[in-house]
Write a structure and sequence with these properties.
The strands form three sheets. The chain has a six-stranded antiparallel beta sheet. A two-stranded antiparallel sheet has the order 1-2. Strands 3-10 form a two-stranded parallel sheet. 31% of the residues lie in helices and 31% in strands. It is elongated. The protein folds into two domains: 64 residues, Orthogonal Bundle (Arc Repressor Mutant, subunit A), CATH 1.10.10; 176 residues, 3-Layer(aba) Sandwich (Chorismate lyase), CATH 3.40.1410. It is an alpha+beta fold and 268 residues long. Strand 1 and strand 2 form a beta hairpin.
């Protein structure tokens, strides 16, 4: 258990303290319904002022992790995280949540044609000079509450043709409705923190910890068509991954489709 906040930490002390307490909530040091140490005890432990401790607790409370009970103290709240299960065969986000009885939707923030950033050009294998892509920024809502902010980059021919639908529905099901099959998704995860914009969209304090899901989606012929990143609130969304051994014969054909040549004809 951490005994003091690092004096040389470049981040605000109250955020460092709230992250330490969050880690202890997640590892079971403080279980649901259990009381956190008093302000005085936390002041001694982290060697900081009362106002710093109150800010740290307020940060946790704003994320729905703890609640203050008048005259009693601060208690850990039971968490109701939704899990998106990443496994084979591929199941899309909203489909997996629907199976769990959870409602998902989007709130579109932006949808525009922009010059492709270098990283996006590489991920989408764009070889032409000065490539352009459609960028979409949307809030992913779980039971009407913001859970993630998804910024995706879509091939221009797809973005132009399906612009109206993409601004109202989830990306992958929309494409599949038009015969653009998602064969596989490459994904990575990394930790990040909420900047001002994300803190506003996700309704959480500036600097709060986030888990960012980065992805690239491939269609027939192993062609990348969409890539993006979705920073998410850890108190509302988690990811579950199933790993299995893939026979060598399957690996040799992974990402390939007998209809791969049909993709070019499916996009006007």
């Amino acid at each position: 258990m951490t005994q003091a906040a690092p004096a040389s930490s470049p981040r605000p002390l109250h955020l460092t303290i709230s992250e330490n307490l969050l880690a202890e909530i997640n590892d079971g040091t403080y279980a649901a319904g259990e009381q956190l140490p008093s302000e005085h005890q936390l002041m001694l432990r982290f060697e900081v002022s009362r106002i710093t401790i109150r800010r740290a607790i307020a940060n946790l409370a704003s994320q729905g992790l703890v609640e203050a009970q008048r005259g009693r103290g601060v208690f850990v709240k039971e968490q109701h995280k939704v899990a998106y299960r990443l496994s084979n065969p591929l199941v899309f986000f909203e489909e997996d949540l629907a199976r769990q009885g959870v409602t998902s939707s989007i709130h579109n923030l932006a949808f525009d044609l922009i010059p492709a950033p270098d990283e996006v050009s590489q991920r989408l294998h764009l070889k032409q000079p000065n490539p352009r892509v459609y960028r979409q920024i949307k809030i992913l809502l779980i039971n009407q509450s913001p859970a993630a902010v998804d910024t995706s980059y879509i091939l221009p021919e797809l973005g132009e043709r399906y612009a109206e639908e993409l601004q109202q529905q989830m990306t992958f099901p929309t494409l599949e409705q038009h015969g653009i099959v998602i064969e596989r998704i490459e994904a990575t995860f990394e930790s990040s923190h909420a900047n001002y914009e994300l803190s506003q969209y996700l309704e959480m304090p500036l600097g709060s910890p986030l888990l960012t899901y980065r992805y690239t989606a491939y269609t027939q012929g192993d062609r990348p068509i969409v890539c993006g990143a979705a920073p998410s609130r850890g108190d509302r969304l988690r990811y579950s991954v199933t790993l299995s051994r893939t026979p060598a014969s399957d690996e040799a054909n992974y990402g390939k489709s007998p209809n791969s040549e049909e993709f070019e004809d499916s996009i006007p």
